[in-house]
Structure formats: structure tokens, C-alpha cells
Amino acid sequence: MIGLVLAAGAGRRLRPYTDSLPKALVPVGPAGIEDSITVLDLTLGNFAEIGLSEVAVIVGYRKEAVYERRAALEAKYGLKITLIDNDKAEEWNNAYSLWCGRDALSDGVILANGDTVHPVSVEKTLLAARGEGKRIILALDTVKDLADEEMKVVVDPEKGMTRITKLMDPAEATGEYIGVTLIEGDAAPELADALRTVWESDPQQFYEHGYQELVNRGFRIDTAPIGDVKWVEIDNHDDLARGREIACQY
Questions:
Q1: Of 84, 130, 144, 197, which sees the most CB atoms within 10 A?
Q2: What is the pLDDT of residues 94-133, one digit of tens each?
Q3: Nearest in space to 46 (alpha carbons), one of 115, 101, 118, 108
Q4: Are 249 and 30 in contact (CB under 8 A)?
Q5: Is residue 147 over pLDDT 90?
Q6: pLDDT value at position 248?
Q7: Which long-range contacts (CB under 8 A, 24 or more apart) does 186-195 make?
Q8: CA-to-CA distance for 194 and 143, rounded, in angstroms?
Q9: Domain of 193?
Q10: How many domains is the chain partitioned into structurally?
């Protein structure tokens, strides 16, 4: 199993940081220290802590910044890092971005969004949930109060995940998908095909629509509640301030 990071996004709501950096390289250390730890650092650190030795990072917007740091990141975290180019990163959404990493999926991956600050306990929870024929497992926050923007999930105790979308009444949701997934290698062909169906029908769709496509086809997707842990998806400057509060605790 390897790590896989989606780090191709522009993150325009985080300007001026993202004028020259992809969102995954925006500093989440103390404000004013521009060369401090990033979301990508935190994610690579988590992967190293659970014993992974290889990571693939899907890059696009300002990808040269990741290429420039690759050797230093490999040395810092003891990981072999492969960079995968997304040629449509500034035009299309992340269903296509994850599809660009379809070959890496065959190794089995822990997928992490490049804008999610979270503790290593999330990856450990996913690993502990493996087995019993589970092929895709989503990390799920069942504690947080939900609103309109969250990627909401409905779980049936017998069938697993039945619905994933932002466009849902929060009261109907079991919890929020936090942007971290364990994908077993034997699920790769079916997931890649679902992703292709999604982005070919609408290039602006999220990869989570690929998960929904799989479920609609009869594929079971499981979930693993992460408990009451501090995490944040960084989309704007308020999120960044929250990310800095959380990152210093790990």
C-alpha cells in the first residue's frame, strides 16, 4: 500500500499564498513564517508514521513548486515520492485529477486530499477497519454539526454508504466525509472506470461523484468513524487560521 495525495488544486480563495503555490503548499505553521510546515508536510508525516514507504502526489497548478521540494520532502520523511501530472488542473475538477492517478490505485492506497489538516489517527482508523472484504473505506466525521458546504454521507448499517453529496439536507446525513479514503488495489479498475464516466459526463464533478457512481452500480463502499478529532478542510483564510490552530497540536 502507498500514499496518494491530491495536490493539483489552485485554491484561489487563499490568495495571495496561492499566487505562487498550490494549495497543498500553503504554510499552516505560525502566521508570518512563510517557510513553515504545509498541509503536504503533515500528510507525508502521517504516511511515514503508519509505515508507508512510497507516496504518489498528483500535481497541476504551480506544480513546479512541488517538483522543487520533492527531494527535500523525500529526505525529511524517508519516502519515495512520485509526481503525477494533471494536465487539466486549472480547467477541470478533481474527479479527473484522481483518475490521473488510476495506475497508482492498483497498489492499494490511502488517499488524502491536499487541503485537509488531520491527525494520523485518521489513517490508523482506516487501517484498523480493513478486512472482511472491504474494498473502499471512507473516513467519516459523525460528530461535527453539518451545514451546506460539507461533503455529506448517508450510511446504511447493512449496505454501507448509500449517498455522498454536498446537496443534501444536513439532517439526513450520517456524517461528513473528511477527504481521506483507504482504497484496496482490487477496487482500482472499477473506481477508475467510475471516475472516467463521471468526468466525461461533466469535467467539473468531484471525485466523490465517482464513489456515488460505484454505489449506483452495486459496489459496496464502507465507512470508518474517526471519533471526536480536530481536523479542517482549508478552502479560505478562515479555514487557514483554524488549520494553523490544529496543526500546532500534532
A1: 84
A2: 999 999 999 999 989 999 999 999 999 999 999 999 999 9
A3: 118
A4: no
A5: no
A6: 72
A7: 186/135, 187/105, 187/135, 187/136, 187/219, 188/102, 188/105, 188/106, 189/106, 190/214, 190/217, 190/219, 191/102, 191/105, 191/136, 192/99, 192/102, 192/105, 194/219, 195/95, 195/96, 195/98, 195/99, 195/102
A8: 30
A9: 2-247
A10: 1
Question: Strand 109-113 and strand 2-7: pairing?
Answer: parallel
Whole-angstrom distance between the N-terminal and C-terminal Cα of the chain? 24
Q: How far is CA 72 from the centre of its chain?
A: 22
Which residues touch 145 (CB under 8 Å, ≥6 apart)? 170
Cα 185–Cα 187–Cα 189 angle in degrees, nearest 5 = 100
Quick one: pLDDT at residue 16? 66
Q: Where are the alpha helices (DSSP H) in 60-207?
A: 63-77, 94-100, 102-105, 121-128, 188-201
Residue type, 193: D
Spatial neighbors of 61 by CB under 8 A, at least 6 apart, are 8, 9, 10, 11, 18, 22, 23, 89, 90
89 Cβ partners below 8 Å, 6+ apart?
A: 8, 9, 10, 59, 60, 61, 63, 97
DSSP class of residue 150 equals S
Lowest mean pLDDT among 102-106, 187-191, 225-229, 235-239: 235-239
Instruction: Provide the CATH number for the domain around residue 187.
Output: 3.90.550.10
pTM of the model: 0.92
| pLDDT score for 35 | 61
* Residues 105 and 188: beta-carbon distance below 8 Å: yes
